[in-house]
Amino acid sequence: MNLTITDVRLTPILVADPPLLNTQGVHQPYTPRLIVEVETADGVVGVGETYGDTKYLELARPFAERLHGRQVSDLNGLFTVADEVAVDAARISGQVDVGGLRGVQTADKLRLSVVSGFEVACLDALGKALGLPVHTLLGGKVRDSVEFSAYLFYKWAAHPAGAPAEADDWGAALDPAGVVAQARRFKDRYGFTSFKLKGGVFPPDEEIAAVRALAEAFPGHPLRLDPNGAWSVETSLKVAKELGDVLEYLEDPALGTPAMAAVAAGTDVPLATNMCVTTFGEIREAFTRGAVQVVLSDHHYWGGLRNTRELAAVCRTFGVGVSMHSNTHLGISLAAMTHVAATVPDLHHACDSHYPWQSEDVLTERLTFDAGRVTVSDKPGLGVELDHERLRRLHRRWLDDDGTLRDRDDAAAMRVAEPGWTTPAVPRW
Amino acid sequence: MNLTITDVRLTPILVADPPLLNTQGVHQPYTPRLIVEVETADGVVGVGETYGDTKYLELARPFAERLHGRQVSDLNGLFTVADEVAVDAARISGQVDVGGLRGVQTADKLRLSVVSGFEVACLDALGKALGLPVHTLLGGKVRDSVEFSAYLFYKWAAHPAGAPAEADDWGAALDPAGVVAQARRFKDRYGFTSFKLKGGVFPPDEEIAAVRALAEAFPGHPLRLDPNGAWSVETSLKVAKELGDVLEYLEDPALGTPAMAAVAAGTDVPLATNMCVTTFGEIREAFTRGAVQVVLSDHHYWGGLRNTRELAAVCRTFGVGVSMHSNTHLGISLAAMTHVAATVPDLHHACDSHYPWQSEDVLTERLTFDAGRVTVSDKPGLGVELDHERLRRLHRRWLDDDGTLRDRDDAAAMRVAEPGWTTPAVPRW
Q1: Residue at B409 is within a domain
Q2: Residue A23 half-sphere exposure, CB side, CA atoms within 13 Å?
Q3: In which domain, by residue range, is A165 found?
Q4: A282-305 pLDDT, tens digit each
Q5: Searching chain B, which residue's CA lies closest to the CA of residue A77?
Q6: How far is CA B1 from CA A73, A380, B40, B136, in A?
Q7: pLDDT in tens, B219-237
Q8: Same domain, B86 and B196
Q9: Does residue A407 lie within any of the structural domains?
Q10: Is the pTM of this model over 0.95?
């Protein structure tokens, strides 16, 4: 058995994305992802997936070169490699990432977002080489399936006319009735029993009405609302008060640890986050101040599946809950999320996933939700297979793009419909 | 490859221990350890080692029964098994463990101390089955050797006459000159360059003089002093002030988080601990209060090598250092400590080990220190081999014991020399 890495292939792609609304704008018709393939001397190929925007590609290329000759089992060494790759300071704002609502941007976080793609690919290859599923490489599953939540969005029926886009059959959802109809379809199709609404799109009263409508349509089902930090502390507390009886948690109502801490101090509704705490460096202050009660991990930017387990350990130690965040992703990442989630003992909330919104994938067979759950594969590695023809087609789309869609920009997508739109200042309400 | 556990063997043993002094008394002539063997359906045998006192044996036996039919790769599942094993409440004082100065006693900690023996045995078996060293199962080594510190003790030349005991050739060390001579021998024999003195034995001024003598004999070498919580806050601050210029850290000067926090607030000398923080449950308060600057992990009671890595992640997140504690142990545990230490990126202090004090072992070949370091084995599993004849002999000693030495009791050992001795109340000084 030779675990030496002899080839690394990076394939940026553009995948169809419906016109989902958030506080910064709307999803572009196509969103960039990066598919990573790591091949060993024995010809075993492992696959990984991460963000595909230019700033990630810039880092991934020199990173990939440094992997040649290393072992796919040397997972701790990936962080050493990451440290050796220079990050263009111009890419780092130190501010909240405007492309995807995923918290602060730092050089380390950018590196970790790239590490995760390689880590998953290495784990997949290692599992295949050893004949063990990825969950076994993480110490073994403690559950056979992982529960996911329906991820509801305000959305348009279609992307603005003019630009190329794939059609979707979900229809519009711009009011409480539309949100409930979307939720019902999610429940009927996939069996989800908990619902998360992406908020921050309409004035809080409208979103309160939507959540209230969900509560009436699905009594007793866990509900969440996530305005991506669009609210002031005062507004956050108002929403918490009005929806306290039906919310499982409120996600990132306000931006930053001081505001989140102020909200937490004024309500019993737990606060979840994928914006306030998105790096290990942000944990100390947030936990000490009691600013968050649930951290929504995203293995992409936390640095992989093993770092996600470490994050879960930190949360467990401090009595903070843990669950999973999602940005637009494909089946490789859903498989990776499912493997790691299956190994985390105290996962008390259904995980988020955009996957049902993605009509395209690079796998030979899509993953499926049954009763809102994804079964953990016991096949070697991740248990997924790359469809090279599909990959080629989505890569062709990336090659053909003139550059406008290679970097996710929800505000730019919004300007197509509303010229003059800019990312709203926060707090927006 | 069949990783199913088909046999688990538990062998309690008594190993020779020199008359090393601490604040509670003196090491008994023999100390109990438990050797664990886990065998798979393919006949692969993994070995582990943990505490061997009766309370651990009581738990290990039902635990072992439940392992039959499980996979050696199911490491997360070991904690589930642990939860199923009932702990005799009479064994749990909730107070500091008097048998070994290793912090609070809780049911969970007792369970974790047993888990660790099985976890190491499973990792050893899994590594052998896969052809991978244990460090690779932990994500890969980030260094090729691990630095250890010389563990200096005040000691008698021999155990009290009358009872059976093995002789040692270290001689007595009961004053600064004796401590320096011992340190010199450690340095000459094993190449250690940092020195830890177990204190709490003599009045603080005598121990200050001993550390001062070490500083003069070995200028620039990192020095540590560990009175096992024997001092008041006031005394701790006095020692910190007098030795601040030569101490790498002060270990457990006072007992409990409030006292440690008070000491930490009054000195720049970092405080290390294996008594204040010995469970995940103690971390939150201690870290929030800044009570400790270095946690000395002990994989035995933290629940194994993977938990040790999680502890290191928690420490890293909170800017607290991490290194390794040691109780009397044999080569299996030294190998385990070395594997995990090799994978922890931010290990900034030499680890503790009693190993040089142990003249007996159960391995075919002893591990060695070169320039104060143990080389990390790249052989499959831990890279050690059990000597069954040696194991049989030490087990025979355990069988022949009338029960007086089967539970470590440093105060009882002291009473042999000083009738009427009881464990001193703390603070002792």
Answers
A1: no
A2: 27
A3: 139-375
A4: 999 999 999 999 999 999 999 999
A5: B142
A6: 19, 13, 10, 19
A7: 999 999 999 999 999 999 9
A8: no
A9: no
A10: yes
